[in-house]
Amino acid sequence: MLVLDGVSRKFSDKTAVDQVSAEFAPGSFVGIIGRSGAGKSTLLRMINRLVDPTAGAIRFGDRDVTRLKGAELDAWRARCAMIFQQFNLIGRLDVLTNVLMGRLDHVSAPRALLRLWSDEDRAIALSALEMFGIADLAAKRADQLSGGQQQRVAIARALVQEPRIVLADEPIASLDPRNTRIVMDALLRINRHFGITVLCNLHSLDLARGYCDRLIGMSAGRVVFDGAPAALTDDVARDLYGLEAGEVMDAAHAAPAAHAGGASQPSAVPA
Ligand SMILES: Nc1ncnc2c1ncn2[C@@H]1O[C@H](COP(=O)(O)OP(=O)(O)OP(=O)(O)O)[C@@H](O)[C@H]1O
């Protein structure tokens, strides 16, 4: 179980994340939603310690993630794989080597340094590519792939890390609708097939409702909704997104509510 206990992050006088507490059961698929600047990326980045909290604690089982250093921190980052909007592949390297980079934590330091991959590592990487229908691209340079293909390579690289948690930060933000589906299906697959917990920042509310079994709504760094997608009414969503509601909800849902403009605080659903 991953536990956030009063986690906050300040940047100078700006509070990006404000006393967030939440528990994530193994195997859940959680969507983090909210308008731009709500604190979603900062929250995910704190979980794998790309950003350190300024207050609060993050625990995984009996481990205090907030205090990990050195090799233990590296091991945590491997268990807690991150997927980025911009894929973060090494463009000049071939696809298979990019996926093998996810195995670095599983090989000895000298072998890692020389990139001496074992047959087993290669087989693991290839089968991850097969799982997402892109094994035929193994020898291609990563920078010759489409955005959707690159993101599937990034998910394959995350998968071969053998993570317990995948943190996906707007993984489909730069993709067309068809590739959006393919990439979301790939995340759902690793969640359902391997029981990997997925925490996914999403801008589109329809996607969040369609793929996630729990939604966390953030506003100004705080959690203002935590519950099942069905519990997120259109009125709560409109309050959560404010002026961005039209972008994230389909046209029928996005029509202004009778009270829109009157309510300044999002409707709170107890966490
Ligand atoms: N490194 C940083 N230095 C200063 N301010 C930051 C930094 N990172 C984030 N912030 C600020 O913290 C707030 C939350 O940012 P964050 O990126 O977490 O929001 P978000 O919900 O992910 O937004 P978006 O959907 O636009 O990515 C914003 O006001 C942002 O400007």
Strand order of the largest sheet: 6-7-8-3-9-10
The CATH superfamily title: P-loop containing nucleotide triphosphate hydrolases
Q: Report the biggest beta sheet as strand number plus sense, adding barrel if it closes.
A: 6 strands, mixed
Mean pLDDT: 87
Q: Helix content range of the residues, please?
A: 25-40%
Total of domains: 1
CATH topology (fold) name: Rossmann fold
Query: SSE order, as H and E?
Result: EEEHEEHEHHHHEHEHEEHHH
**CATH class category name:** Alpha Beta
CATH-scheme architecture: 3-Layer(aba) Sandwich
By helix and strand content, what is the structural category?
alpha/beta
Q: Report the principal-axis shape.
A: globular
Low-confidence stretches: 251-271
Quaternary structure type: single chain
Number of helices: 11
Please report which band the strand proportion falls in: under 5%, 5-15%, 15-25%, 25-35%, 35-45% or over 45%.
15-25%
Number of strands: 10
Radius of gyration: 19 Å
Distinct ligands: adenosine-5'-triphosphate
